[in-house]
Amino acid sequence: MKSKILVSLMLILASAMSFGQSENETVRSLTVDEAVELAKKNNVSVAHSQITLDAASRAKAHSWNSISPTASLSASSTLPIDALSDADSAYTAIIGISASLSLNLTANLFTSMNAAKIAYESGKLTFDDAVKSVELGVREAFYGLLYERENIILQERNLEIAKTQYNNNLAKYNQGRLSEIDVLSAEVNYKSKIPTVESVRTTFLNDMASFKQTLGLNLDEKIELEGSLDDLINLKEISLDAGNVESSSIKLLEYELESAKNSVTASRFSAFAPSLRASLDWSDKSWYLGYDEVKAGKPKSDPAKSTSLSISATIPLDGFLPWSAKNDAIDSAQDTVKDLELQLDNEKKNLARTVMSSLRSIKQSQESIKYKQANVTLAQKTYDMTAEAYNRGTKDLLTLQNANTSLLNAQVSLKSETLTLIKTILNLENTIGVDFGTLGK
Question: What's the DSSP call for residue 235?
């Protein structure tokens, strides 16, 4: 008796502790916009892109450094060999100091600075693309999880209906009002749905873990997604002028084209433009330490000081030779420009085609949603009437099960089509470079 009381007390205490822990456990609620902000702050790929952009910014800020003068300072010391072995050496050491300052000026300074500017602007666009790519992934994953969560609810409801049918049939069988085969059929129908429910739950948990990692959250942190796919079913019709939209892919090609034209100019400068070099050299040498005029047999000479300034100009001549390597470099750079112009024209056509295709897909999804909403209403009404007829004994179990399956399929199909519409709109917004959530509102 005492052991039973002790066990009861332990169970009560454990339950109380478990209740306290569940009360203290916090659940973070997230809207889709809050999830996006978390990803922008914590996502690893965004951090990598920021490092690359910072490097491009630094290169742009220091692109003028090729005209920065080069300075050097050196000191030398000469020791006679006899100073190490013979105490009668005339001197201990000779010390000298020299310094130089040089400056190079080339026409390519302009193209180097322009190249750094283009690279920075292109880097900013690449960084923005990386951020938008993360945002697109987060939004798609968010709505995908909403779909999976609502699918779990539908599958659990379907399982509960099958369980209720089985229990009712079992009760009727025990009362002698139903055959055993109907009970077994209801049991098989009920238990066959259990793996489906477990599968969608597992998929949801796995995708949720990936979503947390994308946001930079701890995997054991509890989060609750706010919103429903139903909030996005009744979007307005979307219309765009496919010829007047732009995309980051076109802008990147435009930067590549600008960079290629800059390379043509740089190649021409290398082939034809002169370069200037100025240098200033100073030295103060032959400072004797421990000099002995008696041992040397002559007086100590004054330190040798010198200062020189030189200016030179170099004019390349091989650029005037049609077969020279520098002329070939100019031709190759011009070929790159022509190729990029073709790519840019083709990319503009691809963009227009993609936009028109997306608009057609969106319109088709919106029409499908209308039909599938009506189908859900019809399937729900059919199931309700079939269930009522089954309870009266005018419909068999198979007919009821088929009606229930039709209702589930209609509901899942509607949710799936809604998710397809959302993802198509998100990808179109990403393609044309507008803010997410702009279209259809």
Answer: P
CB-count exposure of residue 147 (10 Å: 0-12, 13-18, 19+): buried
Task: Quickly count helices (H) and strands (E) in the chain.
Answer: 11, 6
Separation between Cα atoms, residue 29 and residue 35, nearest integer Å? 10
Q: Look at 88 and 226; give whichever has higher pLDDT.
A: 226
pTM of this structure: 0.72
Contacts of 440 (CB under 8 A, 6+ apart): 235, 236, 237, 238, 362, 425
Residues 135-182 pLDDT 10s: 999 999 999 999 999 999 999 988 998 898 889 889 888 988 888 888
Which class for 277: exposed (0-12), middle (13-18), buried (19 or more C-beta within 10 A)? middle
Residue among 93, 82, 223 nearest 145 (CA): 223
Q: Encoding tokens for residue 236? A: 């307005």
Q: Per the structure block, which two tokens stand in for 280?
A: 């200033």
Rounded Cα distance, 435 and 428, in Å: 11
Alpha-carbon span 393 to 309, nearest angstrom = 114
Largest CA distance in the chain: 140
pLDDT of 272-308, one tens digit each? 778 778 788 877 776 666 555 555 555 666 666 778 8
